[in-house]
Amino acid sequence: MSSKTYDFSVIVAIYNGVSTVRECLASIVSQENVSVQLIVIDGASTDGTIEVLSEFSNDISHFVSEKDSGIYDAWNKGLKVIDSEWVIFLGCDDYFWRSNVLAEVQPLLYSSSKEIPIIYGSVCVVNSRKDYLYSIGAPWSILKQTFYKMMCLPHPATFHRSTLFKDVGLFDSSFKIAGDYDFLLRALGSKDALYIGGEPIVGMRHGGMSSSPRNALKGLSEIYMARYKNGLKDFSLPLFLFKIRIYLRYFLGLLFSQKFCNIAYDFGRKLRGLPPLWTKV
Protein backbone atom coordinates (compact mmCIF):
# COMPACT_ATOMS: atom_id res chain seq x y z
CA MET A 1 0.00 0.00 0.00
CA SER A 2 0.95 3.67 -0.20
CA SER A 3 3.48 5.30 2.11
CA LYS A 4 1.75 8.61 1.46
CA THR A 5 -0.73 10.23 3.84
CA TYR A 6 -3.77 9.75 1.60
CA ASP A 7 -5.04 6.99 -0.69
CA PHE A 8 -6.08 9.51 -3.37
CA SER A 9 -5.61 13.16 -4.21
CA VAL A 10 -8.57 14.77 -5.99
CA ILE A 11 -7.85 18.17 -7.54
CA VAL A 12 -10.89 20.26 -8.39
CA ALA A 13 -10.46 23.40 -10.52
CA ILE A 14 -13.39 25.81 -10.30
CA TYR A 15 -14.40 29.18 -11.68
CA ASN A 16 -17.94 30.46 -11.18
CA GLY A 17 -19.45 27.00 -10.75
CA VAL A 18 -22.07 27.75 -8.11
CA SER A 19 -24.78 25.64 -9.78
CA THR A 20 -22.83 22.38 -9.82
CA VAL A 21 -19.90 22.57 -7.40
CA ARG A 22 -21.89 21.38 -4.37
CA GLU A 23 -22.72 18.05 -6.03
CA CYS A 24 -19.13 17.68 -7.22
CA LEU A 25 -17.63 18.13 -3.75
CA ALA A 26 -20.34 16.09 -2.04
CA SER A 27 -19.50 13.14 -4.30
CA ILE A 28 -15.86 13.40 -3.20
CA VAL A 29 -16.31 13.77 0.55
CA SER A 30 -18.87 10.92 0.60
CA GLN A 31 -16.37 8.35 -0.71
CA GLU A 32 -16.34 5.36 1.59
CA ASN A 33 -13.44 3.39 3.11
CA VAL A 34 -10.65 5.50 1.54
CA SER A 35 -8.76 8.61 2.58
CA VAL A 36 -9.05 11.48 0.11
CA GLN A 37 -6.96 14.61 -0.08
CA LEU A 38 -9.40 17.15 -1.51
CA ILE A 39 -7.57 20.03 -3.18
CA VAL A 40 -9.73 22.90 -4.44
CA ILE A 41 -8.28 25.60 -6.68
CA ASP A 42 -10.72 28.43 -7.37
CA GLY A 43 -10.05 31.09 -9.99
CA ALA A 44 -11.45 33.97 -7.88
CA SER A 45 -15.12 33.16 -8.45
CA THR A 46 -17.70 35.93 -8.07
CA ASP A 47 -21.00 34.04 -8.41
CA GLY A 48 -21.45 32.55 -4.94
CA THR A 49 -19.09 29.61 -5.45
CA ILE A 50 -16.94 30.66 -2.48
CA GLU A 51 -19.96 30.55 -0.18
CA VAL A 52 -20.73 27.00 -1.30
CA LEU A 53 -17.10 25.99 -0.82
CA SER A 54 -17.25 27.25 2.77
CA GLU A 55 -19.77 24.48 3.50
CA PHE A 56 -16.96 21.96 2.85
CA SER A 57 -14.21 23.77 4.75
CA ASN A 58 -13.68 20.85 7.13
CA ASP A 59 -13.25 18.42 4.21
CA ILE A 60 -10.97 20.49 1.98
CA SER A 61 -7.31 19.70 2.60
CA HIS A 62 -5.92 22.60 0.57
CA PHE A 63 -7.74 25.64 -0.80
CA VAL A 64 -6.66 28.49 -3.06
CA SER A 65 -8.85 31.25 -4.48
CA GLU A 66 -7.04 33.62 -6.83
CA LYS A 67 -6.93 34.54 -10.49
CA ASP A 68 -5.20 32.05 -12.74
CA SER A 69 -4.49 31.63 -16.44
CA GLY A 70 -6.82 28.66 -16.92
CA ILE A 71 -7.58 25.13 -15.79
CA TYR A 72 -4.06 23.80 -16.33
CA ASP A 73 -2.53 26.61 -14.29
CA ALA A 74 -5.02 25.73 -11.55
CA TRP A 75 -4.19 22.02 -11.70
CA ASN A 76 -0.47 22.79 -11.48
CA LYS A 77 -1.09 24.76 -8.28
CA GLY A 78 -2.85 21.74 -6.83
CA LEU A 79 -0.07 19.38 -7.85
CA LYS A 80 2.37 21.25 -5.62
CA VAL A 81 0.69 19.83 -2.50
CA ILE A 82 -0.38 16.30 -3.49
CA ASP A 83 0.28 13.64 -0.85
CA SER A 84 -0.88 10.35 -2.37
CA GLU A 85 0.18 7.77 -4.93
CA TRP A 86 -2.76 8.45 -7.29
CA VAL A 87 -4.20 11.73 -8.54
CA ILE A 88 -7.47 12.43 -10.35
CA PHE A 89 -8.75 15.75 -11.71
CA LEU A 90 -12.39 16.83 -11.65
CA GLY A 91 -14.13 19.92 -12.93
CA CYS A 92 -17.06 21.40 -11.07
CA ASP A 93 -19.42 19.81 -13.63
CA ASP A 94 -18.05 16.34 -12.79
CA TYR A 95 -18.94 14.03 -9.92
CA PHE A 96 -18.06 10.53 -8.78
CA TRP A 97 -20.68 8.10 -10.01
CA ARG A 98 -21.22 6.38 -6.65
CA SER A 99 -19.96 6.64 -3.09
CA ASN A 100 -17.78 3.52 -3.16
CA VAL A 101 -16.12 4.05 -6.56
CA LEU A 102 -12.67 4.87 -5.17
CA ALA A 103 -12.76 1.94 -2.74
CA GLU A 104 -13.68 -0.36 -5.64
CA VAL A 105 -10.77 0.72 -7.85
CA GLN A 106 -8.19 1.01 -5.07
CA PRO A 107 -7.04 -2.65 -5.08
CA LEU A 108 -6.44 -2.59 -8.84
CA LEU A 109 -4.56 0.70 -8.73
CA TYR A 110 -2.29 -0.24 -5.87
CA SER A 111 -1.53 -3.73 -7.18
CA SER A 112 -0.84 -2.61 -10.76
CA SER A 113 2.62 -2.68 -12.32
CA LYS A 114 4.78 0.40 -11.78
CA GLU A 115 5.25 0.36 -15.56
CA ILE A 116 1.63 1.44 -16.01
CA PRO A 117 1.48 5.21 -15.39
CA ILE A 118 -2.18 5.80 -16.30
CA ILE A 119 -5.27 3.83 -15.29
CA TYR A 120 -8.69 4.97 -16.46
CA GLY A 121 -12.34 4.03 -16.39
CA SER A 122 -15.40 5.31 -18.21
CA VAL A 123 -17.32 8.57 -18.00
CA CYS A 124 -21.10 8.78 -18.22
CA VAL A 125 -22.09 12.01 -19.98
CA VAL A 126 -25.41 13.46 -18.80
CA ASN A 127 -27.46 16.56 -19.54
CA SER A 128 -28.46 19.27 -17.05
CA ARG A 129 -31.28 17.01 -15.79
CA LYS A 130 -28.79 14.14 -15.36
CA ASP A 131 -30.42 12.10 -18.11
CA TYR A 132 -28.00 9.63 -19.70
CA LEU A 133 -26.59 10.78 -23.05
CA TYR A 134 -23.63 8.51 -23.82
CA SER A 135 -20.54 6.92 -22.30
CA ILE A 136 -16.86 7.49 -23.00
CA GLY A 137 -14.31 4.77 -22.37
CA ALA A 138 -13.07 1.51 -23.85
CA PRO A 139 -10.14 -0.89 -23.31
CA TRP A 140 -6.69 0.44 -24.18
CA SER A 141 -6.33 -2.18 -26.92
CA ILE A 142 -9.19 -0.41 -28.70
CA LEU A 143 -8.27 3.21 -27.94
CA LYS A 144 -4.49 2.99 -28.29
CA GLN A 145 -4.20 3.66 -32.02
CA THR A 146 -6.79 6.46 -31.96
CA PHE A 147 -5.12 8.08 -28.93
CA TYR A 148 -2.05 8.99 -30.95
CA LYS A 149 -4.32 10.54 -33.60
CA MET A 150 -6.56 12.58 -31.25
CA MET A 151 -7.63 12.76 -27.62
CA CYS A 152 -9.95 9.87 -26.74
CA LEU A 153 -9.19 9.02 -23.10
CA PRO A 154 -11.94 10.11 -20.65
CA HIS A 155 -9.74 12.38 -18.55
CA PRO A 156 -12.16 12.96 -15.63
CA ALA A 157 -12.05 9.19 -15.01
CA THR A 158 -8.26 8.94 -15.35
CA PHE A 159 -5.96 8.12 -12.43
CA HIS A 160 -2.37 9.41 -12.66
CA ARG A 161 0.59 8.08 -10.70
CA SER A 162 1.90 11.00 -8.66
CA THR A 163 5.45 10.19 -9.75
CA LEU A 164 4.48 11.15 -13.30
CA PHE A 165 4.60 14.84 -12.49
CA LYS A 166 8.25 14.54 -11.49
CA ASP A 167 9.11 12.28 -14.41
CA VAL A 168 7.49 14.22 -17.29
CA GLY A 169 6.63 17.59 -15.76
CA LEU A 170 3.42 19.47 -15.07
CA PHE A 171 0.66 20.56 -17.42
CA ASP A 172 1.62 23.09 -20.09
CA SER A 173 -0.50 26.08 -19.10
CA SER A 174 -0.12 27.68 -22.53
CA PHE A 175 -2.86 25.24 -23.57
CA LYS A 176 -6.42 26.25 -22.68
CA ILE A 177 -8.38 23.16 -23.81
CA ALA A 178 -6.03 20.33 -24.84
CA GLY A 179 -3.41 20.50 -22.08
CA ASP A 180 -4.58 17.16 -20.70
CA TYR A 181 -3.95 15.56 -24.10
CA ASP A 182 -0.45 17.05 -24.25
CA PHE A 183 0.30 15.74 -20.77
CA LEU A 184 -1.04 12.25 -21.48
CA LEU A 185 1.05 12.03 -24.65
CA ARG A 186 4.12 12.79 -22.54
CA ALA A 187 3.05 10.48 -19.74
CA LEU A 188 2.33 7.45 -21.88
CA GLY A 189 5.00 7.77 -24.58
CA SER A 190 5.59 4.15 -25.52
CA LYS A 191 3.91 2.85 -22.35
CA ASP A 192 0.46 1.34 -22.02
CA ALA A 193 -2.53 2.53 -20.05
CA LEU A 194 -4.91 0.19 -18.23
CA TYR A 195 -8.70 0.29 -18.48
CA ILE A 196 -11.04 -0.32 -15.54
CA GLY A 197 -14.15 -2.02 -16.86
CA GLY A 198 -17.58 -2.11 -15.26
CA GLU A 199 -19.65 0.83 -14.10
CA PRO A 200 -18.64 4.44 -14.81
CA ILE A 201 -16.14 6.19 -12.56
CA VAL A 202 -17.40 9.72 -13.12
CA GLY A 203 -20.52 11.51 -14.32
CA MET A 204 -19.89 14.55 -16.51
CA ARG A 205 -22.40 17.17 -17.59
CA HIS A 206 -22.42 17.88 -21.31
CA GLY A 207 -21.62 21.44 -22.32
CA GLY A 208 -18.04 21.99 -21.20
CA MET A 209 -15.44 24.32 -22.61
CA SER A 210 -15.06 22.55 -25.96
CA SER A 211 -18.76 21.97 -26.73
CA SER A 212 -19.40 25.14 -28.79
CA PRO A 213 -18.13 25.19 -32.40
CA ARG A 214 -15.84 28.15 -31.68
CA ASN A 215 -14.24 26.48 -28.68
CA ALA A 216 -14.19 23.14 -30.48
CA LEU A 217 -12.12 24.75 -33.25
CA LYS A 218 -9.77 26.16 -30.62
CA GLY A 219 -9.53 22.72 -29.05
CA LEU A 220 -8.87 21.13 -32.42
CA SER A 221 -6.05 23.58 -33.06
CA GLU A 222 -4.54 22.70 -29.69
CA ILE A 223 -4.79 18.97 -30.40
CA TYR A 224 -2.72 19.55 -33.54
CA MET A 225 -0.27 21.57 -31.45
CA ALA A 226 -0.03 18.82 -28.83
CA ARG A 227 0.63 16.16 -31.48
CA TYR A 228 3.28 18.29 -33.17
CA LYS A 229 4.93 19.14 -29.84
CA ASN A 230 5.17 15.43 -29.03
CA GLY A 231 6.62 14.44 -32.40
CA LEU A 232 3.39 13.17 -34.00
CA LYS A 233 3.44 14.85 -37.40
CA ASP A 234 1.66 12.22 -39.49
CA PHE A 235 -1.77 12.76 -41.04
CA SER A 236 -4.66 12.03 -38.71
CA LEU A 237 -7.86 10.93 -40.43
CA PRO A 238 -9.95 11.08 -37.20
CA LEU A 239 -8.85 14.69 -36.67
CA PHE A 240 -9.60 15.58 -40.28
CA LEU A 241 -13.14 14.16 -40.05
CA PHE A 242 -13.64 15.86 -36.70
CA LYS A 243 -12.59 19.17 -38.26
CA ILE A 244 -15.18 18.76 -41.05
CA ARG A 245 -17.94 18.08 -38.50
CA ILE A 246 -17.00 21.14 -36.46
CA TYR A 247 -17.09 23.42 -39.51
CA LEU A 248 -20.46 21.97 -40.53
CA ARG A 249 -21.79 22.73 -37.04
CA TYR A 250 -20.34 26.23 -37.21
CA PHE A 251 -21.90 27.14 -40.57
CA LEU A 252 -25.24 25.48 -39.79
CA GLY A 253 -25.36 27.59 -36.63
CA LEU A 254 -24.93 30.73 -38.68
CA LEU A 255 -27.73 29.83 -41.10
CA PHE A 256 -30.42 28.06 -39.10
CA SER A 257 -32.17 28.00 -35.73
CA GLN A 258 -30.68 26.07 -32.84
CA LYS A 259 -33.58 23.59 -32.90
CA PHE A 260 -32.99 22.80 -36.57
CA CYS A 261 -29.26 22.49 -35.97
CA ASN A 262 -29.76 20.07 -33.09
CA ILE A 263 -31.94 17.84 -35.28
CA ALA A 264 -29.35 18.00 -38.07
CA TYR A 265 -26.49 17.22 -35.68
CA ASP A 266 -28.30 14.17 -34.34
CA PHE A 267 -29.11 12.99 -37.85
CA GLY A 268 -25.39 13.05 -38.55
CA ARG A 269 -24.76 11.06 -35.38
CA LYS A 270 -27.38 8.51 -36.48
CA LEU A 271 -25.56 8.07 -39.79
CA ARG A 272 -22.40 7.27 -37.80
CA GLY A 273 -24.23 4.75 -35.64
CA LEU A 274 -24.27 6.98 -32.56
CA PRO A 275 -27.19 7.71 -30.20
CA PRO A 276 -28.93 11.13 -30.24
CA LEU A 277 -27.25 13.87 -28.22
CA TRP A 278 -28.06 17.43 -29.23
CA THR A 279 -31.85 17.03 -29.09
CA LYS A 280 -31.51 15.72 -25.53
CA VAL A 281 -29.24 18.41 -24.09
Automatic annotation (TrEMBL):
SUPFAM superfamilies: Nucleotide-diphospho-sugar transferases. InterPro entries: Glyco_trans_2-like (IPR001173), Glycosyltransf_2 (IPR050834), Nucleotide-diphossugar_trans (IPR029044). Residues 9-98 form the Glycosyltransferase 2-like domain. This is Glycosyltransferase family 2 protein. It comes from Curvibacter microcysteis. The lineage of its organism: Bacteria, Pseudomonadati, Pseudomonadota, Betaproteobacteria, Burkholderiales.
